[in-house]
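quick one
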Amino acid sequence: MSSVRVLDVLDAQRWLVIGSAGMLGQDMVAAAATAGAQVTGLDRPVGGEPGIDITNYAGTAALIVDGHYDVVVNCAAWTAVDAAEDAEGPAFTVNAIGAAHVARAAATVGARVVQISTDYVFAGDATEPYAEDAVIAPEGAYGRTKAAGEWAVKANSADHLIVRSAWCYGAGGTNFPKTMARLAASRDVLTVVDDQQGQPTWTVDIADLIVRLVAAQAPAGTYHGTSQGAVTWHGFAQAVMEALGSDTRVDPVSSEAFAAKAPRPAYSVLGHDALRAIGVEPIGQWDQRWAQAAPSVLGL
Ligand SMILES: NC(=O)c1ccc[n+]([C@@H]2O[C@H](COP(=O)([O-])OP(=O)(O)OC[C@H]3O[C@@H](n4cnc5c(N)ncnc54)[C@H](OP(=O)(O)O)[C@@H]3O)[C@@H](O)[C@H]2O)c1
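structure w/ NAP:
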């Protein structure tokens, strides 16, 4: 379902989107506004401009209480996965303590809180899609901090929606398709790992799903906001070349060839039964959504 078809369902609800300058935050502000909400977007203060720092409870609570919001979406996070390995404390401060602050402040004013989480909370060693209630067992620092954020939100607000996504791309951020497009402009051959599977997901689709969950008054709980189907990074890179009309060849390689600091889940495929159980349509198949997204994401 597109945002256009849910136009005005939010009927002048007051929404706060935190992390509004980020890749998902930008699309979240747009989707909520298109659906009829009065939206305020806040991000970290820059150059004397007003902003929000979720690691500061007093400031966060004051902004949330003063705004009389119905819904608070926390898109703010420490998202530097490799850097988190050497900075787990600072990452935890944003991803767990900051999430707790947002949820606690939202709860004090009766606002619904939406927390964005990640496939990295899972070990990535499954052979079938992870259910929403599958055991959490993060392998790296980023995943541990995001898993703690999920618990923190549940502990501080009964009225929470936790939306896990993965392999995100959008027009307003740095991401895999844009990196592939940049490399393809100067190379005849790219090598891309083909032993990690996941669900490339457009941030426009995550934002639209969050609007639909709120509009449907979804029960509090954890939902998976990823595309359906699955592909390897190598397969996704080939789809990016196709969208670009590029002749650059994409060769498969094992992830051992790329020495990343943080471990990557080999199998990041999430199931969507919780959405279906409440009659909310999951995001579509990854390849169909990519075909729709590619022009705006790649600026074609
Ligand atoms: N990207 C993915 O593939 C992916 C996959 C699964 C889940 N997610 C989750 O999706 C959510 C959105 O991710 P994204 O890709 O849109 O991330 P992003 O582009 O890095 O945006 C995050 C935003 O949060 C801001 N922020 C960081 N610390 C903050 C603080 N203390 N107070 C207020 N704002 C702060 C950042 O500002 P600065 O730029 O100044 O730090 C940035 O604008 C995150 O929860 C992430 O964990 C992302």
